[in-house]
């Protein structure tokens, strides 16, 4: 095994340990990473930060670009929902942009960026439940008022009379 394969294995163990919900999002969206991988494009560049001479030589920073409007993975309703919720993440070309430069390996950064994309898409596709307004039952109101009277009586009985 080379260094990168060991690093990938360690990273996958970290993800399993942290129990990131990317698999849950994939199930909810009826997708898999292979389908996403086909529609995603990557740009790489030199990353800043730790790494010494490696930073100056190797392009490890990954910029993942995903075209939501032309994607075949989502219905029109889902696309509209994604476009409205993720407006701040689009670049000037209208592509969803996820940047990762955390690791010293380009391959690890690609995996992290893809998992972030899955998480972002999954969270954006969640539609919150509409709250139903329910009137408080009279019995609940009556019991609350009764408890307040009991508490008031209890505190009243503890009070000392200083008028003497």
Task: Describe the 3D structure.
With 164 residues, the chain is mainly alpha-helical. Helices cover 52% and strands 10% of the residues. The protein contains seven helices and three strands. The protein has helices at residues 3-18, 22-29, 33-39, 53-57, 76-85, 106-124, 138-158; strands spanning 41-45, 61-66, 96-100. Strands 1-2-3 form a three-stranded antiparallel beta sheet. The longest helix has 21 residues, at 138-158. The model has no long low-confidence stretch (mean pLDDT 80).
CATH architecture: 2-Layer Sandwich
Order of helices and strands: HHHEHEHEHH
Largest sheet: 3 strands, antiparallel
Shape: elongated
The overall number of domains is 1
CATH fold title: Double Stranded RNA Binding Domain
Task: Extract low-pLDDT stretches.
Answer: none
CATH class: Alpha Beta
Distance between the termini: 92 Å
Q: Helices and strands: which structural class?
A: mainly alpha
Beta-strand percentage range: 5-15%
| Oligomeric state of the chains in view | single chain
Radius of gyration: 27 Å
Strands of the largest sheet, in order across it?
A: 1-2-3
Helix content: 40-55%
- The pLDDT mean sits at 80
Q: Count the DSSP helices.
A: 7
Total E-strand runs: 3
């Amino acid at each position: 095994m080379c260094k990168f394969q060991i690093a990938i294995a360690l990273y996958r163990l970290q993800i399993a340990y942290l129990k990131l919900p990317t698999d849950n999002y994939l199930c909810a969206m009826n997708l898999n990473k292979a389908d996403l991988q086909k529609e995603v494009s990557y740009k790489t560049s030199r990353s800043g930060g730790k790494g010494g001479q490696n930073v100056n030589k190797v392009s490890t920073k990954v910029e993942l670009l995903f075209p939501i409007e032309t994607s075949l993975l989502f219905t029109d309703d889902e696309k509209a929902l994604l476009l409205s919720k993720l407006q701040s993440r689009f670049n000037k070309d209208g592509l969803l942009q996820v940047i990762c430069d955390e690791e010293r390996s380009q391959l690890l950064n690609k995996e992290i960026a893809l998992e972030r994309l899955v998480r972002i898409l999954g969270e954006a596709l969640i539609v919150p439940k509409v709250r139903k307004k329910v009137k408080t039952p009279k019995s609940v109101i009556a019991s609350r008022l009764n408890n307040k009277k009991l508490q008031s009586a209890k505190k009243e009985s503890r009070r000392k009379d200083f008028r003497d």
